[in-house]
User: Which sequence fits this backbone?
């Protein structure tokens, strides 16, 4: 069977299994309405709608599988809106905010964020992002983190956005060059941490704290 025909059949099958793929605009509009109600008086409805649809577009650009993409876009937009409200003082910060940034947000930054979230136990709020995000998290990272009791099942690569940088108190860059915008009053750290290996794990690369 020709590859293009196979891709078309797979796409149709995916759409039948996930009806929201046939009407992402309607799903995203409902998400935007819910978030607009949550942030009424804090963030304008227009800003909320733009954030939701931009988040969907950004994730779709790098994702290979579009099932559940509207759900991920809603989560991504909700986190960005919270960051936006925090950065302008509309929503107070209960704990310090730390942002880890690497290139693909598929290895180093995900591991660092997962480890800090796990060990901080709510005393720090952690985000991660990538300057050029991959389509999925490195499976070696997921396996290695699972082995030490850190669940990565709900995580996904996210693009770097100004709002999460503006909300951070500490920004930790890992090989992403000058991708992070500079805001006054923040602490910027540059960590030299090798990217985790691919499908064949190497124990020495599993814990960023040892690098």
Assistant:
């Amino acid at each position: 069977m020709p590859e293009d025909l196979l891709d078309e059949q797979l796409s149709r099958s995916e759409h039948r299994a996930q009806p929201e793929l046939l009407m992402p605009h309607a799903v995203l509009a409902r998400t935007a309405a819910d978030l607009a109600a949550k942030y009424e008086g804090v963030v304008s409805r227009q800003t909320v709608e733009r954030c939701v649809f931009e988040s969907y577009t950004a994730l779709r650009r790098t994702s290979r599988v579009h099932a559940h993409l509207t759900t991920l876009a809603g989560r991504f937009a909700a986190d960005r809106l919270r960051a936006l409200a925090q950065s302008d003082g509309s929503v107070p910060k209960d704990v310090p905010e730390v942002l880890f940034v690497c290139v693909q947000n598929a290895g180093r930054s995900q591991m660092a964020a997962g480890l800090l979230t796990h060990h901080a136990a709510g005393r720090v709020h952690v985000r991660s992002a990538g300057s050029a995000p991959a389509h999925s998290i490195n499976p070696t990272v997921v396996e290695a983190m699972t082995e030490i009791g850190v669940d990565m099942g709900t995580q996904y690569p996210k693009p770097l956005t100004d709002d999460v940088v503006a909300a951070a108190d500490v920004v930790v860059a890992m090989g992403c060059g000058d991708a992070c915008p500079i805001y006054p009053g923040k602490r910027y750290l540059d960590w030299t941490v090798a990217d985790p290996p691919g499908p064949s794990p190497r124990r020495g690369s599993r814990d960023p704290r040892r690098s």
About this structure: Residues 69-87 form the longest helix (19 residues). The domain at 8-87 is CATH 1.10.8.1060 (Helicase, Ruva Protein; domain 3). The beta strands are 97-102, 125-130, 170-173, 187-190.
